[in-house]
Amino acid sequence: MTMEVRATMHALSPISTNLHERIKNDVKVEDEIYARLSWRNLTVVVNGNQSVLHDISGFAEPGRLLAIMGPSGSGKSTLLEGLAGRLSNQAQCHGEILLNGRKEQLSYGTAAYVSQDDVLLGTLTVYETLYYSAKLRLPDNMTRSETELIVKKTIEDVGLQDSMSTPIGNWHQRGLSGGEKRRVSIAIELLTRPRLLFLDEPTSGLDSASAYHVVQALQNLARDGRTVICSIHQPSSEVFELFDDLCLLSGGKQVFYGPIFGAQEFFASAGVPCPALRNPSDHYLRTINSDFDRVTENLKSWSKRFDVEDGCLHNPMARKSTAEQVRILVHLFATSEEKRVIDNTILSMSKMEGKVLPTRGSQASFISGHYGVAAFSIGNTLSSLPFLLLISLASTTIVYLMVDLHSGMERFAYFVLALFASLMVVESLMMAVASLVPNFLLGIVTGASIQVLLSFLTPFLSYT
Ligand SMILES: Nc1ncnc2c1ncn2[C@@H]1O[C@H](COP(=O)(O)OP(=O)(O)OP(=O)(O)O)[C@@H](O)[C@H]1O
Ligand SMILES: [Mg+2]
């Protein structure tokens, strides 16, 4: 191990000093590589007139962990996608999103988006998964030891050092737990050392202990100077306390934005204080989720039947319907002192033009939108050429000899080429279908149907 590599190993920050050096050498714009994201009056409209998000403002700062919470369908994923610039074509986004005071397209390596699903190869170990991903994502001129170092550091960042040699696991092989898989997905995105991290429900499907470990890993990443924004569903009180800031949505409207301890005061001042011994996040979601109306009705009938006192039910605000409560809370927040402070902060952030964040790595994923359909189709077709040629040669050799067709090298080569051309047509056809039909099963059905139709044309072709 070289001195340089050893020095990096002992660096205080888990962010590889090595990569810092590269960033400084390759991109001349910054010493400071922090991401300050602010959004103002963000409105998202789908299908022409259906408003999914309405007038949302907020900001995310380095070193802090922001939670976007709200009932199902409140617009958490839409807000996250809007901020990450990943909204679908049907959605129109209005408003201002600034990164370090500039209107910027979030480039590869600057920001990472961890979606809800884990797309991992079950047979690989944690280390192998990260190593292969690093080989694909990091610059080509990195040496093997540098890549290995970054992979090990990243595994440590998400606290998976004890499971480094454990296979991911699949339907027939037991492997990592759900929470560990989530952390592997996060680690893959961390390889490029993004300064801004978006995560859509990183704890969904996990028990509270696994969820705690995942969010704790996120908190560590935030404390390391990254800006972390994640949407989350009903966290336990321990998990909730790990967050710094809270953005509470209901029906696409902003109910609250600010530090999580401020939420307690805000709800208390609005007449719906969090009862003692109740998880604050449960209380906030319950207050703004209309699905709980029926639960409250049941509680009322129970308290009447058994003469039970429930402070919440006797609260004048709590006796209102959820829709009314949300309307009051949204109005209260919009006219609150907290909102004024936030607006001022956003304004000052937008005036303060910060550093341009560097783009890192050489490759990225198709889903992240970093390369187009054409590049993927051409790359995939070219890489499959040798295999298709091999398949044509092997099949022809067997069939040609078995059937005892005309001898002669020229005819044999013609057969191989004809088979190879047919395979290429099918391969290209399936690539074209895949780019037009995103659904896997529907794509197979469409491709197969076209091939059947094409085979009907064979008799005509053979006679012309
Ligand atoms: N492209 C779209 N076309 C039509 N409706 C959409 C589109 N995108 C979002 N919506 C609607 O916007 C609302 C918010 O969706 P979103 O996925 O952001 O909710 P969410 O808070 O993430 O919910 P969940 O907690 O269930 O994931 C939903 O009612 C959804 O149907
Ligand atoms: Mg969602």
From TrEMBL:
<protein>
    <recommendedName>
        <fullName>ABC transporter domain-containing protein</fullName>
    </recommendedName>
</protein>
<keyword id="KW-0547">Nucleotide-binding</keyword>
<dbReference type="InterPro" id="IPR017871">
    <property type="entry name" value="ABC_transporter-like_CS"/>
</dbReference>
<feature type="transmembrane region" description="Helical">
    <location>
        <begin position="440"/>
        <end position="461"/>
    </location>
</feature>
<dbReference type="InterPro" id="IPR043926">
    <property type="entry name" value="ABCG_dom"/>
</dbReference>
<feature type="transmembrane region" description="Helical">
    <location>
        <begin position="385"/>
        <end position="403"/>
    </location>
</feature>
<dbReference type="InterPro" id="IPR003439">
    <property type="entry name" value="ABC_transporter-like_ATP-bd"/>
</dbReference>
<dbReference type="Pfam" id="PF19055">
    <property type="entry name" value="ABC2_membrane_7"/>
</dbReference>
<keyword id="KW-0813">Transport</keyword>
<feature type="transmembrane region" description="Helical">
    <location>
        <begin position="412"/>
        <end position="434"/>
    </location>
</feature>
<dbReference type="Pfam" id="PF00005">
    <property type="entry name" value="ABC_tran"/>
</dbReference>
<dbReference type="InterPro" id="IPR027417">
    <property type="entry name" value="P-loop_NTPase"/>
</dbReference>
<dbReference type="GO" id="GO:0016020">
    <property type="term" value="C:membrane"/>
</dbReference>
<keyword id="KW-1133">Transmembrane helix</keyword>
<dbReference type="InterPro" id="IPR013525">
    <property type="entry name" value="ABC2_TM"/>
</dbReference>
<dbReference type="GO" id="GO:0005524">
    <property type="term" value="F:ATP binding"/>
</dbReference>
<comment type="similarity">
    <text>Belongs to the ABC transporter superfamily. ABCG family. Eye pigment precursor importer (TC 3.A.1.204) subfamily.</text>
</comment>
<keyword id="KW-0067">ATP-binding</keyword>
<dbReference type="InterPro" id="IPR003593">
    <property type="entry name" value="AAA+_ATPase"/>
</dbReference>
<keyword id="KW-0812">Transmembrane</keyword>
<feature type="domain" description="ABC transporter">
    <location>
        <begin position="37"/>
        <end position="276"/>
    </location>
</feature>
<dbReference type="Pfam" id="PF01061">
    <property type="entry name" value="ABC2_membrane"/>
</dbReference>
<keyword id="KW-0472">Membrane</keyword>
<dbReference type="InterPro" id="IPR052215">
    <property type="entry name" value="Plant_ABCG"/>
</dbReference>
